Amino acid sequence: MGSVSPVGKLRNKITIQNTDLSADTYGGYTTSRSSYITAYAQITPKTGKQIFSDTTGERIQNPQEFEFTIRYRSGLTTSMRILFGSRTFNIKSIHNDNDYDKYIKILATENVGT
């Protein structure tokens, strides 16, 4: 992003959720989600593709990748997910932009039409 502040581009309100595992009475685990942070982000679509079944020819997935740029926050992991309105994105990678601890770029995947 360079040294110029892109604060005006961070206009989309997102929530990053943490995955919580708790033991259940049957010896397994129950997965729940809790809000970790709410931030403003710049959202940029990166790629989109369709995956079809080899046998039937039907579309089985429609994954789309997006890049989210937010102000630097420590503690983010790839086990978290992003909520933007009614849409859910699974985090694939997290990059500290230029290692300046000013902005983080998050690559996330949204599955549409599954």
Distance between the termini: 34 Å
CATH topology grouping: Thrombin, subunit H
Count, helices: 0
Whole-number count of domains? 1
The appropriate CATH architecture is Beta Barrel
Fourth-level CATH superfamily? Bacteriophage SPP1 head-tail adaptor protein
Strand content: over 45%
Q: What order do the strands of the largest sheet run in, or round the barrel if closed?
A: 1-2-5-8-7-6
State the CATH class. Mainly Beta
The averaged pLDDT comes out at: 85
Q: Would you list the SSEs in sequence order as H and E?
A: EEEEEEEE
What are the defining features of this structure?
six-stranded antiparallel β-barrel, two-stranded antiparallel sheet, single chain, Thrombin, subunit H, 114 residues, mainly beta, 0% helix
Report on this model:
With 114 residues, the chain is an all-beta fold. A hairpin with a 6-residue loop joins strand 7 and strand 8. It has strands spanning 12-23, 29-48, 51-52, 59-61, 63-71, 81-84, 87-96, 103-111. The chain has one domain (9-111): Bacteriophage SPP1 head-tail adaptor protein (Thrombin, subunit H), CATH 2.40.10. A six-stranded antiparallel beta barrel has the order 1-2-5-8-7-6. The chain is built from no helices and eight strands. The model has no long low-confidence stretch (mean pLDDT 85).
